[in-house]
Specification:
4-stranded antiparallel β-sheet, alpha/beta, single chain, 5-stranded parallel β-sheet, 6 helices
Length: about 200
């Protein structure tokens, strides 16, 4: 298995307890550059630094992705391999693209992620900016997805969003609590707990 582990925004003290545990348990740890290595070296000085070029040369990017996939695969096939990445592995990171390449070449490998403190939430702390109400996060592209917190009537909200072109829905209720529930698409309940998050995405995303 390959697990993408969020390392937080750049301070080793902001690694989660779970991240530290997984770094210690993994048969091999990989990181995309020296900044990420500096965050894990206390726990895994043997972490392998991989080349993920900051370039617009798509051919070179694909070549490096393939080479990285081939280096990670032997460890992920037979044990637990960890890919540590700054921030969170599901927010604007290279981890999802790496998984696509590995899945194509090595379909027997499974994947998982563990969250880290993202720059989005860390910013509010550093800048001392409390955030409330709705807000937009973008990498410069138009919004493809929407996230709604404290959703009490998820089925009705999804029906309304469908009229705006959204067709993929995931509801997580009481996340990381003992009663956690995940609902997909047509499974959305009429009512949900206060601690609920609904994710909606347009089909072209």
């Amino acid at each position: 298995m390959l697990v993408g582990v969020g390392l937080g925004p750049g301070d080793p003290e902001l690694l989660t307890l779970r991240a530290v545990r997984l770094l210690g348990e993994a048969s091999a740890v990989f990181v995309p550059g020296n900044l990420a290595y500096d965050l894990v070296k206390l726990y895994r000085p043997d972490a392998v630094v991989l080349n993920f070029p900051m370039t617009n040369d798509e051919d070179y990017i694909r070549t490096c992705m393939g080479e990285n996939a081939d280096r990670i695969a032997p460890h992920a096939k037979d044990g637990l391999a960890v890919f540590g990445i700054i921030g969170d592995p599901n927010f604007y990171s290279t981890f999802s693209r790496l998984c696509e390449v590995i899945a194509t070449r090595y379909p027997e490998i499974t994947f998982a992620t563990e969250p880290g403190i993202s720059s989005i939430t860390a910013f509010a702390s550093v800048a001392n900016v409390p955030v409330a109400g709705g807000f937009l996060v973008s990498d410069g592209n138009g919004p493809e997805s929407r996230i709604f917190m404290k959703v009490r009537r998820p089925a009705a909200l999804a029906a309304s969003l469908s009229k705006e072109g959204y067709s993929e829905f995931v509801l997580v209720e009481r996340m990381f609590m003992p009663e956690q529930r995940v609902y997909q698409g047509d499974e959305l309940p009429e009512k949900s707990d206060y601690f609920s998050i609904l994710f909606a995405r347009r089909p072209h995303a």
